[in-house]
Amino acid sequence: MAIALPWSTPAVAAQIDNVRLWAAPDHSRLVFDLSEAAEANVFMLEDPDRLVIDLDDSRLETELDSLDLDGSAISGVRSGVRNGDDLRVVLDLDRAIEPRDFTLAPNDKYGHRLVVDLEYPGESAVEDPIDPIEAMIREQEIAADRVQAKSRMEGLDVDESAVDALQQAQPHPKRDIIIAIDAGHGGEDPGAMGPAGTREKDVVLDIATRLQRRVNEAEGFKAVMIRDGDYYVGLRERTRIAREQKADFFVSIHADAFRSSQPRGSSVFALSQRGATSETAKWLAESENESDLIGGVDGNLSLDDKDEVLRGVLLDLTMTATLNDSLSIGDQVLGRLGQINRLHKSQVEQAGFMVLKSPDIPSLLVETGFISNPEEERRLVDSAYQKKMANAIFSGMLSHFEKNPPPTSLLAWQRDQERGESNDEYRIQPGDTLSEIASRHQVPVARLRQANEINGDIIRVGQVLRIPSS
Question: What is the value of pTM for the model shown?
């Protein structure tokens, strides 16, 4: 008679209880929910193109026919048993992909998972990416800002670090102000859940979509959606997309939950480099940061873990200016939210949310309300209220940018056209250079730059300069 030794535990076959699919502009994500961990081998086959997923000692306990393949790279799915106990899933493909797969350990929302990403080479993560000409203009602005910051960091006079200010005035681009709109969570990360079963990821996408429409309706503005469907985007990827799209401002929309149903009201958060400003802010920051663990990316990134973009004094200079703008916009947005909803806190809070960490883009996280509060849950799913929320957020942004328009924006050009020239102002004409204007008015170029917050030497026809007293 065979005797089982104490350490010889028989292997347990993994059951695939569910298969979920999400389609994004630049990839599709397939998630297998497993009862146990299982070894997987993922590889491509050609003629025709297929992706094969082999799972050792596994059984399929769900129907693959129910998968919605619309918008994905998958035209068909089939499965079969191999080697007696193993499972093979074959994906028929209708476009070129680069596969990537990884496994995830159980957490409080899911068990073992195999995640297979089908990435589309060369595709943008957003549906309507920024125009290349606008991107070039924004790059010039950003580069000039970096030169100015580097000059201050090195203790140089502005003129010492600048090239000759002899470049002739260029046509005003009248560019759009780019607003990056981030609907929190998505895909396999539902976010918070309301008492009636409302999922945060759905509510915030509805509000973000309404905000997108409001932004695009406004002359001189363009919205970029970080996600425009039900799929997950990593927290660091969200800020990367915003920077890639040269956003002037980033707003992340959420509808959080608390341990009890009592808390209610809207909140606005900006980044705090030193941590949160209240216990509530700390708890919220921790819960949001953990969502990357659900989405399949290591979320244990603290504010002390600075990559190369965030190093040194240059970061400090950039972050200070960015944070000041974030707080300024946050005050405006919070004031507008207070007109349609109770405020959870009467001032802009500061916490270590990852999505607020872009060093050169003013960023806010808006908690539209507590989805754990039954009354607020009912309001958050109401389309009329969602529209009011989107309008309030945009109204706060607009108020800031009307007073502080980026220099190459349409709003800046319109402001200058409405201004009459006083004795201490000069409207730039075709052929002008910064050096000539400074010489004509007998002021140093450095003072002219400083008085008009000009970084570098690019000036625009129609721009109105303030001439400092000599």
Answer: 0.82
